[in-house]
Specification:
CATH class: Alpha Beta
Order of helices and strands: EHEHHEEHEHEEEEHHEHE
Oligomer: single chain
CATH topology: Carbamate kinase
Radius of gyration: 17 Å
CATH superfamily: Acetylglutamate kinase-like
Strand order of the largest sheet: 4-3-5-2-1-6-10-11-9
CATH architecture: 3-Layer(aba) Sandwich
Number of domains: 1
Shape: globular
Helix content: 25-40%
Largest sheet: 9 strands, mixed
Number of helices: 8
Structural class: alpha/beta
Amino acid sequence: MKYQRILLKLSGEALMGDKQFGIDNVRIMQYAQEIKAVWERGVEIAIVIGGGNIFRGVQAEQGGMERTQGDYMGMLATMINSMALQSALESVGVPTRLQSAIEMKQICEPFIKRKAVRHLEKNRVVIFGSGTGNPFFTTDTAASLRAIEIEADVVLKGTRVDGIYTADPEKDPSAEKYDVVTFSEVFEKGLNVMDMTAFTLCNENKLPIIVFDMNKSGNLMRLVQGDAVGTKVEF
């Protein structure tokens, strides 16, 4: 395996599947099986999930809600998704620990870096919920931060698109896909990979990012084996 410890970032929207809102049970079970296949090969897996399928703080602010309140509500939405994924993983026999940046002792552990690393070493999947625990930071930033803290080899950003393009491929049919791009090129060309805080964290800590289509069966396994899937952001 090319990568021994990964941070998998999943979007909340991806959990909707074909629904308009909430969690598609078929999609989340598909993700659980994909993760299980990699876990069975001994790869240490940490996961961060967004909450956009339930609530987005930025949208709430546009509707007149105070941003801080909206962001905390979004963090709670990530916990709902995290609990759903934990349940799906455990139903297929994958031991999982959920840690939250906001203390919720009835349902999960608080985020403790040393405990998280120990869980990974014991081959448990660790899900990090509640983002960074702070408003004004996205779950992309949480993914970058946690990946650095646990010394992951790579951030794998699973999306509905199969990589990074010159423009949004869902809106511009002429958009061209990059196989490999440098951090400098992303800055220079203004490519949309992660929000700037998250991206800068990875850049400063020499942590590569791979953007790929999580919905295509087998992609996650191919990635950790070192196959060229999606777009890799490197130095």
